[in-house]
User: What shape does this take?
Amino acid sequence: MPNQDELIDYLKNSQLCALPQSASQMIELSKNPDNGPQEYAKPISADPGLTTQVLRFVNSSFFGFGCTITSLPLALTLVSLQMIRNFVLWNGLFAMLPNPRCGPFSLKALFLDALRRAVFARHVAERYTKIDAEEAFTCALMQDIAIPLLAQKWESEYSEMIHKTNTEPVRLSTLERDGMEWNHADAGAVLARNWNLGETTGIAVAKHIDGIPTCHPACKPTLNNITALSALLPKVPDLEWFEVLNFVDAFRKMFGHKLVDISAILDNTDTVSDQLAALVNLGNAPKSLNESWQETLGGYSWTGTGENLATEEQLEEYFTQGTFPSEQPPGHDWIGAKCQMITSGRYPVK
Assistant: This one.
């Protein structure tokens, strides 16, 4: 099995791991707060294809401007420069990442996952914290970016592991730990540092597999927490959201009793990520995040008859008090049972 030295050498020296020049220039520009639209326009305008993509981004339904923006300088004054930087980054990543012939691996599915997690992290950071929303977007976007590079290099190992993650309720990082000295989170952190995205981003990427954030309602959620929370969203290939209980418990620990917001947050994430995916012809995920939520806890039937669906308020009360309603669900209600065990501290969340 490959060791840590082999990993670092590959990520540092392989041409496959080199970030496009335009993205590198944008990252460097963003380090100096004095740089404005004029400085950002230079590397973008030097690439006609990128200029077209940026104008398409600014004219997308995501912003909803009332008229068509045809001038790059004007576009850069109307939209946050950090948002433009992130667009150039993920647009460049999609162009440079290999699509390895590694069993069931799908680059399109991985990139849809990356976008959904990045949009989710941005929205949560904006809604509940004072954390830089665009930095949250970058960290969540980067968390699994190393996977196609690793699968290209170590095809046989990753082919087997990716097949298992697509058919069994297991995380890739768990399988990586069993057979190697490192995992894709370690590799992602190395890439983040190699690409000068900053130590903060590198740490958040490295820690995204740590599972449920260790904070409690008295603590303020961190960038690492939000990145880890986004990692608990379902993947595009997943038939079921097998980490939904971990997600809800983490959300509750981070933001108190705001479970009623989950459906709206996921709906917003679906809408925005679909808009961004259309810009690079990714298409849409076969199942939206909100659909996955409604299939699990969001559309949960307390009586088992399908007629008395739990409301968001009932879910919030349930997770707050950790008790069943007066009419207990039937024996097949494994979701309710595990929820109760989580809130009482008797369910070992991994």
Observations:
- The chain is about 60% helix and 0% strand.
- Residues 107-128 form the longest helix (22 residues).
